[in-house]
Structures are given as structure tokens and as C-alpha cells.
From TrEMBL:
Residues 116-216 form the Fe2OG dioxygenase domain. This is DNA oxidative demethylase AlkB. One of its GO terms (biological process) is oxidative RNA demethylation. Fe cation binds at H134, D136, H190.
Length: 219
């Protein structure tokens, strides 16, 4: 009998461990893919994607926007969170309710308490753009995990250790995948390799990533 699945390799596990307290949840939000993508576009219709400057005088290659109580920004003064979008002069768009429920649930699926995000950074990667090795460390609340949702073109995500020079693990992240890191891995270095060209049925030639964070400690 012909094996229809011959050559496809073993099926991916639902949950792949990337480090202590760090998990890649394969296809975890695939059933919400279209709605999440539409909600991200609605956010960008209010607060457009833009490339941000860096303190060093450069520019991030990835275009970004935010929704939630506070948004992450970078400019000549450095990195910080702000309630106001400097481009529009208005508060960032509200966090769509689907974003809140997905972040809450994905944190729990990775073994954390429900996450109540007060910030969502929306990154738009076009072919050849990348995110260099960094830590997410501008948040006051380091007890809450980071929940990162991939949509659109697949990318190579690099997950390292607590030191910049620690070896990194490279994993492919596809639309609908979620990476959650917290606890002992909360300050792990991570990066996104330059995006390969391609065409995604929903997103076209780009990848959108939603990074949900708890910036302020709960009152
Ligand atoms: O795009 C990703 O997968 C990671 C995003 C990220 O690390 C960040 O926005 O800080
Ligand atoms: Fe990050």
C-alpha cells in the first residue's frame, strides 16, 4: 500500500520546548488566523505601520505599530513605552478583544497564568527584513510571560539564552504558531532571521507578528 504521508517526516509535536519556560505552540491559533490578521490591519488603519529610528542613528528594518494601553517605541532617545502614538498624536488603538483572549489562553497553554496584556507590538516583516538579537526588557512586569503570535509568511526564529553569546536554537515559525517565554527564560535573547521572499494567501509578501506583553505590574 502506498503511504500517503511518506517523505513528510514525523508530525510536529503540538508543543515544542525551546528553553526553560519557553514553548513553541504549533498551529495554536490557526483557527483564528484570518480574524487575527484582519484585526491587525484594523489596528494599522488607525496607527499606521512605520519604521522607527534607533538611538544609534539607524532605522529598524521591520515596520511596527501597536495597540493596547501603551505602545513600544524607539527613536533617537532610545526605547520606551508610551500611551501616545507619536505619529498620530493619539492614544494607540484599543487591544482587540480577540487579541486579549488569544494572549490569555496561549499563556495558559504554555503553563503560565492567564496573561492580561496591556501592550501589543505589531511587527510587519517584508522580505530581507529582520530583527537582531535582543531581549524584551523594557517592561516593568517581568513576572508575566511574552506571547508572540506569527501570521503570514513563515520565518526563522532564533531563541538563545540569558547571555548574548549563548547558542541559539533556530525554529521555523509559521502562520498560526505561538511562541511563549517567561519564568527562567523571560529575558532570553531572541531574533528573527531575514525573511525569505514568498507569498502567503492572507498576508501576501509579508509576515505579521503580534507580541503581547504585560508592561505595568497589575495594580
Ligand atoms: O517577530 C517575532 O517573531 C519576534 C518579535 C520580537 O521579538 C519583538 O517584537 O520583540
Ligand atoms: Fe523581542
Amino acid at each position: 500500500m502506498t503511504d500517503l504521508f511518506a517523505g513528510l517526516g514525523p508530525p510536529l509535536p503540538a508543543r515544542e520546548q525551546l528553553g526553560d519556560g519557553a514553548w513553541l505552540l504549533h498551529g495554536h491559533v490557526l483557527q483564528h488566523e484570518a480574524a487575527l490578521f484582519a484585526a491587525a490591519l484594523a489596528v494599522a488603519a488607525q496607527s499606521p505601520f512605520r519604521r522607527m529610528a534607533t538611538r544609534g542613528g539607524g532605522m529598524l528594518s521591520v515596520a511596527m505599530t501597536n495597540c493596547g494601553k501603551v505602545g513600544w517605541i524607539s527613536d533617537a532617545r532610545g526605547y520606551r513605552y508610551d500611551r501616545i502614538d507619536p505619529l498620530t498624536g493619539h492614544p494607540w488603538p484599543e487591544l482587540p478583544s480577540l487579541f486579549g483572549s488569544v494572549a490569555r489562553e496561549a499563556a495558559m497553554a504554555a503553563g503560565y497564568d492567564a496573561l492580561a496584556p496591556d501592550a501589543c507590538l505589531v511587527n510587519r516583516y517584508e522580505p530581507r527584513t529582520k530583527l537582531s538579537l535582543h531581549q524584551d526588557r523594557d517592561e516593568l512586569d517581568l513576572a508575566a510571560p511574552i506571547v508572540s503570535v506569527s501570521l503570514g509568511l513563515a520565518a526563522t526564529f532564533l531563541f538563545g539564552g540569558l547571555q548574548r553569546n549563548a547558542p541559539t536554537r533556530k525554529v521555523r515559525v509559521e502562520s498560526g504558531d505561538v511562541v511563549v517565554w517567561g519564568g527562567a527564560s523571560r529575558l532570553a535573547f531572541h531574533a528573527v532571521a531575514p525573511l525569505a521572499a514568498g507569498e502567503h494567501r492572507l498576508a501576501g509578501a509579508c509576515r505579521i507578528n503580534l507580541t503581547f506583553r504585560r508592561v505595568a505590574s497589575p495594580a
